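Hi Y.,

Following your request, here is the sequence exactly as I used it, all 497 residues.
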Amino acid sequence: MKKLKVASLLLCAGLFLAGCGDGGGSSDGPESDEKTSISWMAMLHTASPPSGDVTQKLEEYTGVEIDFTWVPDASKTERLNAALASNSLADIVSLTEINNTTVRSSLASGMFWDVEPYLEEFPNLAEISEDRLESSRIDGHIYGVPFLKPIARYGVLVRKDWLDNLGLDVPSTLEELSAVAQAFTEGDPDGNGVDDTVGFVERDESFNVGFRSLSGYFGADNWFTITDDDEVMPSFMQPEYKEAMEWFRNIYDNGWMNSDFAVMAKNDQKNYIVQGRGGIVLSGLQEVRNYIDDAAGTDEEHMEWVLINDIVHENVERRILSDTNGGMGGWLAIPKNNVETEEDLRVVLKFINDLMDEEPFTLMTQGIEGVHYEIDDEGVYVRLDDTKWQQEVQPFSSSRPSELVTVFPSSNPYVNLANEKIRENEEFAVINPTQSLTSETYDRSWSSLIEGISDAYYQYMTGEIEIDGFDTAIETFLRNGGQQIIDEFTEDYRSQQ
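Below is the corresponding structure, written out as tokens. Let me know if you'd prefer a different format.
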């Protein structure tokens, strides 16, 4: 087994280093006798690199020697930028900062292989969905195998036991959801005779998370939209977006939402919910497990939830905004300086392809059977030693080329239900149309420009300004560079039609 080179953290700017070559995996792709090891710059989300035998098992499966260099997530940006600038990379570089200007310009510079012409040669890579491929394009090219993620994980979580206590049906429209929010606030859903509950529990990331997801139900698009005349326009300029704002402010004005949402951190939101103070959450469907787990042993341990992924509004068709960049979590990019020939490129692609097989996916997710887990009579993977798993397996999870290989059954029915609902979202996901487009002004100025729109959203929600004040913020956005972003994205979009 190739040793882990922690010292090389200082050399490789924040990417995942793992490598391999022509393999002993199950794919049918071409093989090469020339390359037998692969280096991989890999991001580290845990306190230390993995120990144990998982790397050796991956080497045995793929038939290549793997040389991981792990870079801590906290320092990935500066180290990645430095590595790209000096071209001191590895055979595989995990580029997960999708909107990083240095990353995007490096990808577009010709430094990395355009892998699209080769994907069809490998069975797993050939099955990557067109939506995810489109989301991974830069200037019309795919400069790395995209990390595959669920395309849309969000929905509406509602306390089912509160619905039952009040004799309410599961809401399926925004009108019904509003009525539930009112009932949860005014109707004593917990039956304690005290006015101590609200409907919605929202948090300080509302503009980017909860409300953004809600706006999709009204017909607003994902950060940007394409108009009928092929103009690329920010979604917050759509009438549907403002309609969503007005609806949500009505919820706030009526007291059917926690009044401190604009300053409530995510963990405080969870505590608020676990304490039984609110019953509607705009969040990832998988979050319900955390509420159930944290409520164990408390007065709310018998809470029940319904997971809703099909809320609709009037004549707007069912839809859900993607929260994962169109199911694409970055690129497994292959530098031309490190992998110089097509033959060696195919070795690296075959390695990535093989990691999408179920056996290596299980190794990188659950670990080794009998060491990290066992399978019970219900087919559930039971962890044998959580600490051992955290040390030897967990660091690999963010380096899996695909999170879609298989879904492991859980003993928690909410986990299984969330996985099912997330799979259903795939068909109805709405993706940001500018992910594959280029705008220098966007790269340079978006993060500062969008702050003005975000501030205006919170001011509007809390009554500091009215909708004309939000329109003023849009005018400021356009005047300070937003119009240039629109023009540049529009020009790029029209050039590709």
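The chain is about 40% helix and 15% strand.

Thanks again,
Q.
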